[in-house]
Structure prediction request, 496 residues.
Amino acid sequence: MERISHYIDGQIAAGSSGRSGPVYDPASGQETHRVDFAALEEVRSAVAAAQEAFPAWRATSLSRRADILFRVRETLDRHRGELAALVTAQHGKVLSDAMGEVARGLENVEFACGIPHLLKGAYSEQASTGIDVYAIRQPLGVVAGISPFNFPVMVPMWMFANAIACGNTFILKPSEKDPSASLRIAELLTEAGVPDGVFNVVHGDRVAVDAILADPDVKAVSFVGSTPVARSIHEAATRSGKRVQALAGAKNHMIVLPDADLDMAADAAVSAGFGSAGERCMAISVVVAVGAIGDRLVAAIKERMAKVQIGDGRDARSEMGPLVTREHRDRVASYLDSGRAQGATVVVDGREDPIVSRAGFFLGVSLIDHVTPAMDCYRDEIFGPVLSVVRTETYEEAIQLVNENPWGNGAAIFTRDGGAARQFQFDVEAGMVGINVPIPVPVGYYSFGGWKQSLFGDTHMYGPEGIHFYTRGKVVTSRWPDPATSTVDLGFPRTR
Ligand code: NAD
Prediction:
């Protein structure tokens, strides 16, 4: 069985803890690799390598760092197909979707190439007589990123591109379910000229995460994953004085107003509900049908669902692949039973799809209608190809539903009425809003983050807020005095 090991100080480092975990090909259900799980000592050695690399990397000029980032971009760009194939092999999403993930990840490297501009400070000449004041931002030191299974290339790029561009050194703890892409990225970064120790990967489970959180040399932690883990990581990191941003789970609603183009809304609901088998934190999981359109909208969605091509993702035909593990597939499917038992109508049961008889972790696309907020399929994040429909009489009821939901990652509205869309943008309690756009993931030069239980911490990820997160401010007040003007003055400094 092929083994996946850590990457420390510019080279692959075989695990020494004796612990490891299985990695599957979700399309075949076969275990293909074992991934080493780091113990405390291995995390320590990665942090030590990053700590040692920090002073020189921090002192590397902005133009040299930008030059290396351009090379990183070009190197990763040349290996897009290879990275996407690794994602498909271990996550299960279809190749075209994996290519999209790599492209969206690369946006963050492209943004970080502008680091000389992004790190410009502010300068006030003659703030007081003969005194200038200026603000600069400096890197934090060793920073860590802990990433989820569902974007094994893009989410690490959300984190490390800005982190290293700002002059930090980085430890990535990727998901243990699909760890190969991060290891390949590490090799490509070295090939592109990133100095040893600037980017390190430790694989593992909670033991590795706890070691990162306990390490006093790790100054900041970026996390993306489920809400309970995000909450506990935010608490632990805050307690130990680390800077932390923990992006969490989601339950994204798409409100369809009676005046919407129903075909467009149905296309969007199917695309955003079942793309990547629903394993996206920005997937639409609830369609809110407002007014009398409910039956027609459900019929239009059902008609499109019948045409979704499910397969192993390696061919050009398949549009949706398997789920990441057998346990996850079975948990997702259980919401079809609980929904039915709690009074919803299961319009399409993905377990009846012939694809389920294959060896991989497949589930067909599923639709549950007449869902209410009391049902488990509404209350829980399902994270699979199960779309729920809630019906409301009015816009006011619909927006109340969205705002009372504990999560607030993305939310979308479909309408032809500009005034209604503008009101939604004003009212909705979510960090990312789509107007006739079902998956409003911000482009790399904005920042990504939800509200409420979808984000713990106050800084969104990547884009300008990413630069802010990975640096700290320093304000310098400076005088090059004429000694003749020097006096003793015990009063509090004020401008003159
Ligand atoms: P997860 O929380 O199970 O795992 C995320 C990371 O935390 C992994 O690296 C994992 O090894 C580690 N981890 C797991 N349990 C841990 C524990 N008890 N203590 C410490 N570390 C632990 O999440 P996942 O299943 O990999 O990813 C899916 C989840 O991520 C969904 O809830 C999804 O909504 C969320 N997500 C959110 C965003 C966002 O931007 N808000 C983006 C992608 C995914």
About this structure: Residues 40-59 form the longest helix (20 residues). The two ends are 73 Å apart (CA to CA). Residues 5 and 76 are 20 Å apart (CA to CA).
